[in-house]
């Protein structure tokens, strides 16, 4: 599947729920958000039907996310259903890790091949301050268990921002020292509550790491399905990655679209462009027309985001929070 910029689109990120059991200060208000009613969520059958059509168009990789995907009832069964679709080669998961330890074995058996865990600090009290939940030990145990499992890849995603956790950067990097864990530093994007924080660039993070560990060596091979660029630290088993959507725009190589929990096929993280697939599914669209609709939408995928630019079509820029979009 190619879009109008001739980018190959083979990756679909699916938010299965907009609810989350954390209240991270850059993502969600402490009181929470007005979440979707259960009947407004795509059913597993609807998600599977979208995945089947997408696979026929060349989508090979599925990322399941949320909110927090593991809070959705019978989530493992959804993984099994997607695993059975012809053409789907890889199903991965992004989670905050709170429920991962107890569910990990079932997830691997169902077909999950790689897991990303979001973690912004290695101090329990700091974790509680950021997330408003006392769950650091559970998350760390889950990461260790995943790193020693049969998973092909385990990654820790750490969002970094000034006056939030810059003093944790080197501590987080050390997760990659003795285990096959790739630690990725995520540059804060100006979406939702993230607009209230000051981002730290990749160059600043590199400077902090090199002051502690010496020169980092660029890793030239591809790791995973996304835009992260990786470096190596001598003696470390894992890699250090950077996802820098603002300062190091990777839109020219974007290979993904998103399906929100309410069934909206979202073509770009920073744009409202897309199509309401749920309405079409519940109004009886045929499989052939569903596939055609997805193909036509992908073809007109926006060229790029406009995080740092003033554009005329300001009403077309995304104004929802990340939990509502899909992390």
Automatic annotation (TrEMBL):
- Which key words tag this protein in UniProt? 4Fe-4S, GTP-binding, Iron, Iron-sulfur, Lyase, Metal-binding, Molybdenum cofactor biosynthesis, Nucleotide-binding, S-adenosyl-L-methionine
Residues reported in the UniProt entry to bind [4Fe-4S] cluster 1: 20, 24, 27
Pathway stated in the Swiss-Prot or TrEMBL entry: Cofactor biosynthesis; molybdopterin biosynthesis
Q: Ranges for the Radical SAM core domain?
A: 4-227
Does the keyword Manganese belong to this entry?
no
Any Gene Ontology biological process? Mo-molybdopterin cofactor biosynthetic process
What does the entry list as the binding residues for [4Fe-4S] cluster 2? Answer: 251, 254, 268
Top-level division of the source organism's lineage = Bacteria
Q: Please list the cofactors this protein needs.
A: [4Fe-4S] cluster
InterPro entries registered for this protein in UniProt:
Aldolase_TIM, Elp3/MiaA/NifB-like_rSAM, MoaA, MoaA-like, MoaA_NifB_PqqE_Fe-S-bd_CS, MoaA_twitch, MoCo_biosynth_MoaA/MoaC, rSAM
Q: Cofactor: bound how, per the entry note?
A: Binds 2 [4Fe-4S] clusters. Binds 1 [4Fe-4S] cluster coordinated with 3 cysteines and an exchangeable S-adenosyl-L-methionine and 1 [4Fe-4S] cluster coordinated with 3 cysteines and the GTP-derived substrate.
Q: Name one GO molecular function term.
A: GTP binding
Q: Name the residues that bind S-adenosyl-L-methionine.
A: 26, 67, 118, 189
EC number(s) reported in the record: 4.1.99.22
Q: Catalysed reaction per UniProt?
A: GTP + AH2 + S-adenosyl-L-methionine = (8S)-3',8-cyclo-7,8-dihydroguanosine 5'-triphosphate + 5'-deoxyadenosine + L-methionine + A + H(+)
One Pfam family assigned to this protein is Mob_synth_C
Could you describe the subunit structure of this protein?
Monomer and homodimer.
Q: Which HAMAP family match?
A: MoaA_B
Which family, according to the similarity comment?
Belongs to the radical SAM superfamily. MoaA family.
Q: What does this protein do?
A: Catalyzes the cyclization of GTP to (8S)-3',8-cyclo-7,8-dihydroguanosine 5'-triphosphate.
What this protein is called in its record is GTP 3',8-cyclase
Taxonomic lineage is: Bacteria, Bacillati, Bacillota, Clostridia, Lachnospirales
């Amino acid at each position: 599947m190619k879009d109008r910029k001739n980018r190959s689109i083979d990756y679909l990120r699916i938010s299965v729920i907009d609810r989350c059991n954390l209240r991270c200060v850059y993502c969600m208000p402490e009181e929470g958000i007005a979440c979707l009613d259960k009947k407004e969520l795509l059913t597993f059958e609807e998600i599977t039907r979208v995945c089947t059509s997408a696979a026929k168009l060349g989508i090979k990789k599925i990322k399941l996310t949320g909110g927090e995907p593991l809070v959705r009832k019978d989530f493992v069964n959804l993984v099994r259903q997607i695993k059975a679709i012809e053409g789907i080669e890889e199903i991965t998961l992004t989670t905050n890790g709170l429920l991962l330890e107890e569910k990990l074995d079932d997830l691997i058996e169902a077909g999950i091949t790689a897991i990303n865990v979001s973690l912004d600090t290695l101090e329990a009290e700091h974790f509680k301050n950021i997330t408003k939940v006392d769950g650091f030990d559970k998350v760390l145990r889950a990461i260790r268990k995943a790193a020693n499992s049969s998973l092909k890849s385990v990654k820790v995603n750490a969002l970094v921002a000034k006056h939030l956790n810059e003093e944790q950067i080197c501590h987080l990097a050390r997760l990659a020292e003795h285990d096959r864990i790739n630690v990725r530093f995520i540059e804060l994007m100006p979406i939702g509550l993230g607009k209230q924080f000051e981002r730290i660039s990749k160059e600043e993070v590199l400077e902090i790491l090199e002051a502690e560990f010496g020169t980092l060596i660029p890793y030239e091979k591809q790791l995973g399905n996304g835009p992260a660029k990786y470096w190596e630290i001598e003696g470390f088993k894992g890699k250090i990655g950077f996802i820098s959507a603002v300062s190091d725009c990777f839109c020219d190589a974007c290979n993904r679209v998103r399906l929100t929990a309410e069934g909206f096929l979202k073509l770009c993280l920073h744009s409202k462009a897309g199509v309401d697939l749920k309405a079409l599914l519940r109004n009886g669209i045929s499989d052939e027309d569903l596939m055609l609709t997805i193909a036509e939408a992908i073809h007109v995928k926006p060229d790029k985001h406009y995080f740092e630019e003033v554009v005329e079509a300001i009403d077309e820029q995304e104004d929802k929070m990340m939990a509502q979009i899909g992390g």
